[in-house]
Design a protein that fits this description.
49% helix; six-stranded mixed sheet; single chain; five-stranded mixed sheet; 19% strand; Arc Repressor Mutant, subunit A; 310 residues; Jelly Rolls; 2 domains; globular; alpha+beta
Length: 310
């Protein structure tokens, strides 16, 4: 499995919710913060997106797709100066999989929703993704247009199994948007997705993901990237935002966390499977990255599950 697929698999998006929107005239919708990934696509018309804490609104036009990965409130509107309607009030009247209408609905057609994600893994994994992914190049919109149209068709005319069909389309839109993000820039940018798209950085990241238990060194990773050690270390830090070996440790701890949640493996077996010779060295790394010892983490998970069942 490739690194992007691995990261999205570990994120385990929950509480999927997508709806359509038809808006006309003067309109404005305020969306509250939400832990997870927001996804919006414009099929026809145009509007503004104003994110709290950002000075300049973003214009969205037909064919655009945008992802928001941070827990922020925002507004979508024909004019950001208009007093907004609460999204919960507007979409609460539309059934899951339905289409909400604002005024006459003649000026804009769009689809949107969110993938809810929680937990320590979410905080770290979402940190790998850009705050905003905006797909706006015509060449990239083509790849998303069919998915957008299929999604709206499912929302407008629900069929048996329609919820699962729409969910799969939404997942596909999410992956496509993330995959296309580096191509939106005319030059190499900073961020994990740009590193994956880079032939040299991508080779090193693939190596760490394919075999996390390997005793990788800066030298061996630089060889995978076909670069000198110093050049590789600097470029990796500039692009990903952390050193190669720190990235490796974080990835190992995310895998460990997943094993602690979803398997019956002992802490020692998990440590060995991820390249640690002792439980103590593994425990120190886990506590530094996750914030608690592996045994404490396991107990807290068990307590949470017990509470949720009562």
């Amino acid at each position: 499995m490739d690194p992007l697929s691995q990261v999205l698999t570990l994120l385990k998006p929950q509480n999927y919710m997508f709806r359509g929107l038809e808006a006309g005239g003067n309109w404005s919708i305020q969306y509250p913060p939400n832990e997870g990934i927001r996804c919006y696509a414009i099929l026809s018309g145009r509007c503004w997106l104003a994110i709290d804490g950002r000075a300049d609104p973003i214009q969205l036009v037909a064919g655009d797709c945008i992802l928001l990965t941070r827990n922020q409130s925002f507004r979508m509107a024909s004019d950001v100066g208009i007093t907004p309607t609460c999204a919960i009030a507007l979409f609460g009247s539309a059934p899951q999989g339905g289409v909400a209408r604002y005024n006459d609905g003649n000026d804009l057609t769009g689809i949107g929703g969110f993938f809810q994600i929680r937990g320590t893994q979410a905080r770290i994994l979402l940190g790998l993704l850009p705050e905003i992914v905006h797909i706006r190049k015509e060449s990239n919109k083509t790849a998303l247009r069919v998915a957008m149209e299929l999604m709206m068709q499912e929302l407008r005319d629900p069929q048996p199994g329609g919820y699962l069909v729409a969910q799969q389309i939404a997942q596909m839109m999410l992956v496509l948007a993330l995959r296309l993000h580096p191509a939106e820039s005319e030059k190499a940018g900073a961020g994990w997705l740009f590193a994956l798209a880079d032939r040299h950085m991508g080779a090193a990241i693939h190596a760490m993901h394919d075999d996390p238990a390997q005793p990788w060194t800066l030298e061996s990773l630089a060889q995978r990237a076909c670069m000198s050690r110093s050049t590789f270390a600097q470029k990796f830090k500039n692009t990903v935002g952390t050193s190669p070996l720190e990235y490796l440790i974080r990835w190992r701890m995310l895998l460990a966390e997943n094993k602690l949640i979803n398997s019956d493996e002992s802490i020692y077996d998990i440590a060995v499977s991820l390249g640690y010779e002792s439980e103590s060295s593994f425990g120190a790394a886990f506590k530094r990255v996750i914030g608690c010892a592996p045994r404490q983490y396991g107990r807290s998970r068990m307590a949470t599950e017990t509470v949720s069942l009562t």
